[in-house]
Amino acid sequence: MSDFHLKMLILVTGTSRGIGEALIHHLATVQRAKVIAVSRKQVPAAKQHKDILYVKADIATEQGRALVVKAVKATRLPLAALVNNAGAMLNKPFGKITPQQLSDVYTANVATPFLLTQALLPQMVKGSHIVNIGSMGGVIGTAKFPGLSAYSSSKGALSVLTECLAEELKPRGIAANCLALGAVQTEMLKAAFPGYQAPLTSAEMAAYIADFVCTGHRFYNGKVLPVSSSTP
Fold first, then answer.
1. Contact between residue 122 and residue 65 where contact means Cβ atoms under 8 Å apart
2. How far apart (Å, rounded) are the C-alpha atoms in residues 154 and 133?
3. Can you spell out the DSSP letters for the chain?
4. Are the beta carbons of 38 and 221 closer than 8 angstroms?
5. If you average pLDDT over residues 207-226, what whole number do you get?
6. Fewest CB atoms less than 10 Å from the CB: which of 2, 106, 206, 224?
7. Cα 152 from Cα 174, distance rounded (Å)
8. Are 110 and 145 in contact (CB under 8 A)?
9. How confident is the model at residue 189 (pLDDT cuts 50, 70, 90)?
10. Distances (CA, A) of 115 to 16, 183, 184
11. Residues 185, 201 contacting (CB under 8 angstroms)
12. Do the beta carbons of residue 72 and residue 120 sit within 8 Å?
């Protein structure tokens, strides 16, 4: 990691599987970015990439967020982009969702990206890009599905948070956008829609997100952008 300071720095959360895992590898290999990959799980050495710094941390905790901030500071690079990809899915009838389950989903999908962005803000500069990974279920006026009330409403809150960040950080030249993803073939999709075959793979969606992370803030700010070709 001696040359880790040489390139653009991008931090991605929720990178142990699915879109997050595919995204960090695309950013490192295709976009040639230096990537900090944050996950609660330890990444096996065989799956690691030389341009990716792996940080094991529970970012729902203050201690975990402090570890992430320390890792960013150690690179001595400004944070060019933050991708809040980590999240939690709950598929359960509305009447049976417990207070703890509701709290867990909102902590993962709203409070954690809120607090992590807050903690990393001092490391961002003019031109930095915050990308929140939302859901079509969190967009007003789109189709909603039984069992996803906690998940979809939390992603709706993330969408509004994105709009708030864009306005508040505008004087600093920091952009914030939300990609409201549709169906992608991931473990999370299987939990939400068992048996459904999505039109896109994790790698295909990751390639789109990677390009948006690096260039999207030139065209958009404060936008919640649907990225979907199907329902769900």
1. no
2. 12
3. -TTGGGS-EEEEE--SSHHHHHHHHHHHHTS--EEEEEESSPPPGGG--TTEEEEE--TTSHHHHHHHHHHHHHHTS-EEEEEE---------GGG--HHHHHHHHIIIIIHHHHHHHHHGGG--TT-EEEEEEEGGGSTTS---TT-HHHHHHHHHHHHHHHHHHHHHGGGT-EEEEEEE---BSHHHHHHSTT---SSBHHHHHHHHHHHHHHGGGT-SS-EEEE-SS--
4. no
5. 97
6. 2
7. 27
8. no
9. low
10. 21, 27, 27
11. yes
12. yes
Amino acid at 82: L
Threshold 0.90, pTM exceeds: yes
Strand order in the sheet with 34-39: 52-56, 34-39, 9-13, 79-84, 129-135, 175-181, 224-227
Six-digit token pair at 15? 């990178």
Are 26 and 211 in contact, with CB atoms under 8 Å apart? no
Q: How confident is residue 7, by pLDDT bands cut at 50, 70 and 90?
A: low
Q: How many CA atoms lie within 13 A of 73 on its CB side?
A: 10
Which residue is it, tokens 């999207």?
A: 216
Contact assessment for residue 10 and residue 35, using Cβ atoms and an 8 Å cutoff = yes
Rounded to 5 degrees, what angle do the CA atoms 82, 162, 69 make? 30
- Ordered by where they begin, the domains of the chain are 4-227 (3.40.50.720)
Return all residues near 7 (Cβ < 8 A) that are at least 6 apart.
Answer: 32, 33, 34, 51
Rounded distance, CA 158 to CA 153, Å?
9
Please give the single-letter amino acid code of residue 213.
V
